[in-house]
Amino acid sequence: MNDRPPQAVRAEALEDLLMEKGLLKGSDVDAVIQRYTERVGPMNGARVVARAWVDEDFRARLLEDGAATVAEFDFEGGQTERLVVKANSDEEHHAVVCTLCSCYPWAVLGLPPAWYKDPEYRSRIVREPRLVLAEMGLQLAPEVAIRVWDSSAEVRYLVLPQRPAGTDGWDEAALAGLVSRDSMIGAALARRPEEVA
Amino acid sequence: MHDLGGRQGFGRVDRPANEPVFHARWEAAVFAIMQATAGAGAFLNVDRFRHAIERMEPRAYLTHGYYGRWLGGLETLLIEAGLLTREELAAALQAKGFPAEHGRAARPEAQPDPPGPPPSAAGTRRELERPAKFALENRVRTLAHGRHGHTRLPAYARNRAGRIVARHGGWVFPDTNAHGLGEQPQHLYTVGFRAQELFGPEADAAVEIHLDLFEPYLLEDNT
Fold first, then answer.
1. What's phi and psi for B219, nearest 5 deg?
2. DSSP sequence for chain B
3. DSSP assignment, residue A169?
4. Residue B203, Ramachandran bin (φ over 0: left; ψ between -120 and 50: alpha; else beta)
5. What whole-number distance in Å separates Cα of residue B193 and Cα of residue A117?
6. Helix B86-95 and helix B65-80: axis angle, to 10°?
7. SS3 at position A161
8. Which among A5, A124, A155 is the nearest to B10, CB-wise?
9. What is the mean pLDDT of the segment spanning A38-65?
10. What angle do CA A6, A41, B119 make, to 5 degrees?
11. What is d(CA A73, CA B83) in angstroms, rounded to the nearest whole number?
């Protein structure tokens, strides 16, 4: 018990207190766990990306109005009021951050990973994105333009990674398997076929 | 402490493989506490919740992790709303064998902001009759100074020249909504800044940073 972070203990004390007051039930916690580990998550965004890779009309609509187009899937996790989708290209790479807190497109990606919300990424990705991405394993040549999107209001951003080579004829489900969460944040490229074989 | 964009001194991004959504049950409990706190009316909008997190003890802000930050904000709001007292929370900690101050990051104010009106509609997008002041490609300059209280203009982008790259219509204004002063919707824009404008001539010439900024943060740039 002594090596648990103090905020864990404090959270549990608050939980006990709110349950005594009838403001919280134990099943509320289980419902949160189930929802965000099983039903709301980046597998949804991956399906959006995969469809954009195979369907030019869908891709165009997605880039024009991300929220309305994603709503065609009717994912659990609610809808985003405004979702802007940015497509990576050979010339331009996009990355998303929320420097002020942790704003993230929950409806398509679920809850953000800790690194996205921690001071290292939040502070450095706007100041030195090429270096930060390289440290994270994504090398971008100096001539590749980098566009960083700081989600400082309620607009949310999703990166549309480039479709990897060697995937001609793949169906959407297989393509979705190449789309990592980090590629939709802009911290990685989509996986290549040889990486998932 | 929350305004971290561009701040120097932090190290490498630590990105474990296969990180679970919740590292421990207590994190999910904090999430559920957030829902319960909102349901009990201790905060009526997300701007107030964010500001409560921003008001937490700054050293804890940097070290307690994401759900530790939520906890700091939620404890603040629950006490300010009168839904629990410090004494009750102290007793709950002591029942677990810990001192009352264990892990405390909340800083409730003796005279908190008024709760403000409930949201006028679902979501935060609001139709505005008055036209947007700026058009696409207009050059703008951001306000030079921060202000006391909640705002969504980060310090790294203050007093900087950029261009309008997108317009998003009217949205609830966080600066007022966080303090119980009402929604007072404002036009919202995406503004693009060259990295060298934000961080000086040593910054990467091939980088552009975009922020979503409310009209009151922006002035015409005639330079």
1. -120, 155
2. ----TT-S--------TT--SSSSHHHHHHHHHHHHHHHTTS-SSHHHHHHHHHTS-HHHHHHSHHHHHHHHHHHHHHHHTTSS-HHHHHHHHHHTT--TTTT------SSPPP--PPPSSSSSB---SSPPS--TT-EEEE-S---SS--S--GGGTT-EEEEEEEEEEE--HHHHTTTS----EEEEEEEEEHHHHH-TTS-TTEEEEEEEEGGGEEE---
3. T
4. beta
5. 23
6. 130
7. coil
8. A124
9. 97
10. 75
11. 40
Q: Which of A7, A97, A126 sits opposite B103 (nearest CB)?
A: A7
Tell me whether A191 touches chain B (CB under 8 Å): no
Nearest to A120 by CA among B16, B209, B13, B1: B13
Q: Which residue of the set A27, A89, A103, A123 is catalytic?
A: A103
Q: Does the pLDDT at position A1 exceed 80?
A: no
Token pair 């405004």 is at which residue?
Answer: A82
Q: Token digits for A131?
A: 């270096």
Distance CA B72, CA B59 (A): 12
Query: Cβ of B92 and A9 within 8 Å?
Result: no
Residues A7, B67: Cα–Cα separation, whole Å: 8
Judged by a CB distance cut-off of 8 A, whether residue A9 touches chain B is yes
Q: Does B205 touch chain A (CB under 8 A)?
A: no
Joined together, the tokens standing for residue A88 give 């990576």
Could you tell me the pTM of the whole model? 0.97
Digit-coded pLDDT (tens) for B165-175: 999 999 999 99
Judge: B35–A120 Cβ closer than 8 Å, yes or no.
no
Residues whose CB is less than 8 angstroms from the CB of residue B59 and which lie 6 or more positions away in sequence, other chains included = none
Cβ-in-10-Å burial (0-12, 13-18, 19+) of B165 comes to: middle
Give dist(CA B12, CA B14) in Å, integer.
Answer: 6
The half-sphere exposure of A78 on its side-chain side, counting CA atoms within 13 A, is: 11
CA-CA-CA-CA torsion sign (A60, A61, A65, A67): negative
Residue B142's DSSP bridge partners are B218
How close, in Å, is residue A90 to chain B by CA atoms?
14
- Beta-bridged to residue B211, according to DSSP, are A150, B191
Query: What is residue A78's predicted lDDT score, i.e. its pLDDT?
Result: 76
